[in-house]
Amino acid sequence: MKYMNKSITELHEMLVKGEVTSEELVKESLELSHKVQERCNAFVTIMDDASGGEVNDELLSGIPYGVKDNYSLKDVLSTGSSNTLKDYVPFFTATAVENLSKHGAIPVNKTAMDEFGMGGTGTTGHTGVQKNPWDLTRMCAGSSSGSAASVASGVYPYALGSDTGDSIRKPAAYCGIVGYKPTYGMISRYGLFAFASSLDHCGVLTRSVRDAAIVVDGMKGIDKYDMTTWDSSNIHLNDDLNDDVKGKKLFYIKELVDIENYPDASDELKKHLEIFNETVEKCRSLGMTVEGVSIDKKLLEAIPSVYVVISCAEATSNMSNLTGIVFGPRSDGNNYYEMMKNYRTTGFSPLIKRRFVIGSYVLQTENQERYFKNAQRVRRLVVDTIKEQFKKYDGLILPVGTGAAKHLDGSLDALNSGTSALEDHLQIGNFGGFPSITIPDGFIDGLPVGVNITGNCYDDQNVLNIAYALEKTMNYKGQIAGGEE
Amino acid sequence: MAKYFVTIGLEMHCEGSKTNSKVFSSARNEYTDIPNANIRPLDMGFPGTLPVLNKEAVRMALMMSIILHAKQPEYMYFERKNYYYPDMPKNYQITQNPPEDCVGMGGYLDIIREDGSTFRVDIDNFHLEEDAASMNHLYDTSTIDYNRAGNPLFELVTKPCLHSADDAVSFLEYVRAIYQYCGISEADSKKGHIRCDVNVSISDDENTLGTKVEMKNVNSFGGVHDCIVYEIKRQSELKDAGRYDEVIQETRRWDEESGTTIHMRDKVDAEDYKYFVEPNIPKFKITQEWIEEIRKSIPELPYERKEKYMGEYGLSNYDAGILIKDINTAQYFEKCIELGADAKSAANWITGNILGYVYKYEINIEDLYLTPERLNVILNSMKEGKISSKQAKELFYMVLERKEEPDDIMKSVGMQQISDDSTLTNIVSEVLSENPSQIEEYKNGKTNMFDYFVGQVMKKTRGQANPVKVKELLNTELSKR
Fold first, then answer.
1. Chain B residues closer than 8 Å to A71 by CB
2. Rounded to the nearest 5 degrees, what angle is found at the Cα of B298, between the Cα atoms of B297 and B304?
3. Taking CB atoms and an 8 Å limit, are A314 and B53 in contact across chains?
4. Residues of B210-229 as b/e, b for ≥16 C-beta within 10 angstroms?
5. Suppose A10 and one of A6, A32, B100, B226 were both cysteines; which one would form an S-S bond, judging by CB atoms 3.0 to 4.6 Å apart?
6. Burial of A393 by CB count in 10 Å (0-12 exposed, 13-18 middle, 19+ buried)?
7. What are the tens digits of pLDDT across the range B280-332?
């Protein structure tokens, strides 16, 4: 590895100085893609015909990157890691990718994922399991599993992800890198295969906070094809990035991070929370205040169920367009309904079908009030509760998950009771559309773990600055899985 | 048949044909015979596509809501109606779901019958949604045209407050006229712009409601009228025979060919559409300022125009009512007035000969070769005595059939009324000179001989003599002899 372990700014400087050409970067990135494909099964498509591009003042120009396979890319296979779209080649490009192209960025592969983003393991895609580059017996988490594995392996400085529950931020933590999803509507979702529209976010996985700022600067912008986008032209995340966070106030949720709440905590969980406490201390050393806030445990424990109800309901409707008639591999049948039924029965994995059943069930007239409407009410309650805290605090800081990457063979994992809220709290960021970033903050037995900072809507700069300052207090910035070859 | 109390409710769908693009997609909203020409990725449900609301369609919907005296929502939002059908590739329709907030809630419209009496129609709701594709079912295959899919569709739902087929049609005709006058839709049923669902029930008296039967997709007002009449008869006959339990809550289809309604599905088969709020269209506030702006921009409505026709031009309620029914007819009439035609005479011609011709050949008045300008030539020629009214009518059909200018036809067929005194005097003298014995009879008191002389003059002039003049001159000439 010569170049691809470097940051965007480093590569840009080298390109501008003529120390390396865009062509050489693309070539190296493609070579590494094939290696990582063998090791981690990270890609659906490697675009071997990709070539270097123009280098100009734009930081992203001429630098290769990866695109999660649920982003539409014109003339390139885009499957969402699903058999139902295994032959689908879009004739238009997602706005976020289009925007990056305008900045001269060069896509070199499509990364594998959980089928249509509906999973948190990186094991449900139609091309098989993504393995964690830090330990091939472990998962990357998902759904942006391929993006996480490839960025952590140093295939390029960044890859696009999408995040409906924690699909950028958890794989980033498991793979020891940075995962950032900005405020809802900052990046257009046009061209991103919909999973749950009210929760879906575009975002990026990188190896440094600055790179995350640079990439999102390039992806964002109001889009006439997405009504939920807003004008962020006065926001310049990279230009305004600074580490002066003195006087900022953070809070954590006591019910989630106090070790007393987990009487049968595993060693791993204990260590994870210790690392979190050290991270909190680092925040304080930067001049920030960090306080514990108590939030109703019942409300916290409802979060995963609320997520399941809303995301499954929206998903079952969003994915009704997958019939195999207009696009996708058409199935046989004696009539339209049979063709559609055969296509969907054979095309979707059992996990997705289960979610569709849940989604349909909670939307049925007789169940809708009890499940779907109540879930929406609790979602509002959770968001209001957190927003109330954002009146006093600049951000919420919490550990990501219950520890390091889980084993692909689940039976090997230590079990803790009462940790579901800790495992899934990142969904708060999707409920509220909050800007949210995960950065690595330590290791347990050679495996990386992460910490998350979430702020109020439109307060992306603040969230990035806090993460940027905190990143400087640790040695994990730019780290490559397994060290550099 | 009339012994039962009839209750009718209507759902009227009108495709908004006057926006530039579709209601949630940037594809053109334009009628074309080329199938599947106006399509964007969203209309075919391609992954990653998102709906973008057409503000113009919302403005039109709000205008209609104001005209219907309905309540406008504080916030506008849309809902998904989930169902699998090939006419909707997303497999959900973006619509509104009353009684949840929609563009118009409640309201009413007062309707004037042909005889001048009025009745009020209560509105349940008025909402905006996207149209589905049009399908054509052939012998062993079906074709789908997505041109229409995604066009704005306005749905007006009345309360069950109508009691006769005639009133139902009067209401529908007036609402159609409003759509046209407001520039929302051509509301052309030949282009499939108007589609109705009709609910009919009968009961013993007005305090009870019978079992409601629904007829879907009735595509003409004639069909609405006939299916109501048929349904009343069908239900009444069953009730008469003590078999009212056979009238079930069901959806039936109006079969134009047989003039009957046919069972489609039972109420229990009704699909659960699993409505939920469309997440890709953020709720937005409808400001009072916007409402007022729209209110001010409402153009002259059909009944306002009708009053003008009756007041200013002295037309009858009946004639004025016919003229305003279709905006193109009203515009045709007004153009005639503008060209100086006598209002009553123009109205007579339009409501009689012209609409008769238009209905018979199923063409639109605005496509007629006989434009107001050409009609005016005919009317003026008649007024100036150049042609008789009989000739005018002949000329009218000749113009339409030959597609030639009325002046040219009058010249080429020698159609001209002879009103010139000296010419006519010569002919009258000639006739009298040829008939001395008849003059004798006339002088002896056989006054009906006068008509014989008129007839002879007309014969000599091949009907072109001005009969009034001929009579005048005959009197003069006869007195001389």
1. 48
2. 140
3. no
4. bbbbbbbebbbbebbbbbbb
5. A6
6. buried
7. 999 999 999 999 999 999 999 999 999 999 999 999 999 999 999 999 999 99
- The number of C-alpha atoms within 13 Å of B93 and in the hemisphere containing its C-beta is 22
Q: Do B48 and A226 touch (CB under 8 A)?
A: no
Helix, strand or coil, per DSSP, at residue A148? helix
Q: Angle, to 10 degrees, between the axis of helix A22-40 and the axis of helix A8-17?
A: 140
Q: Count of residues for chain B? A: 481
Tell me the backbone φ, ψ of residue A445, rounded to 5 degrees: 50, 45
What is the number of structural domains in chain A? 1
User: pLDDT by residue (tens digit) across A154-194?
Assistant: 999 999 999 999 999 999 999 999 999 999 999 999 999 99
Q: Residue ranges per domain, chain B?
A: 5-293, 302-405, 421-480
* Contact indicator for A146, A130 with CB cutoff of 8 Å: yes
In a domain, A394, yes or no: no
With respect to residue A240, please indicate whether it lies within any of the assigned structural domains: yes
CATH class of B421-480: mainly alpha
User: What is the pTM (predicted TM-score) of this model?
Assistant: 0.90
The contacts of residue A265 (CB under 8 Å, 6+ apart) are A259, A273, A416
Is A167 an active-site residue?
Answer: yes
- Give CA separation, B138 vs A409, B141, B143, B429, in Å: 55, 5, 8, 73
Catalytic pick among A22, A78, A82, A143 = A143
Q: Which of B41, B80, B280 sits opposite A228 (nearest CB)?
A: B280
CA-based angle B247:B251:B252, to the nearest 5? 85
Tell me which amino acid residue A133 is.
Answer: P
Element (H, E) at B456: helix B449-460
Q: Which domain holds residue A15?
A: 8-244
3-state secondary structure of B231: helix
Residue with tokens 């339990």: B245
Which phi-psi region, left, alpha or beta, contains residue B31 (left: φ > 0; alpha: ψ -120 to 50)? beta
Cα–chain center distance at A464: 16
d(CA B199, CA B160): 8
**Interface predicted TM-score (ipTM):** 0.95
Q: Which of B48, B84, B89 sits opposite A72 (nearest CB)?
A: B48
Cα–Cα nearest to A66, from A85, A89, A43: A43
> Which of A160, A157, A222 lies closest to A187 in space, CA to CA?
A222
Q: Which positions in chain A touch B57 (Cβ < 8 Å)?
A: none
DSSP code of residue A368? H
Residue with tokens 């919420």: A396
Instruction: Tell me how far apart the alpha carbons of residues A229 and A96 are, in angstroms, rounded to a whole number.
Output: 12
Residue A77's CATH number: 3.90.1300.10
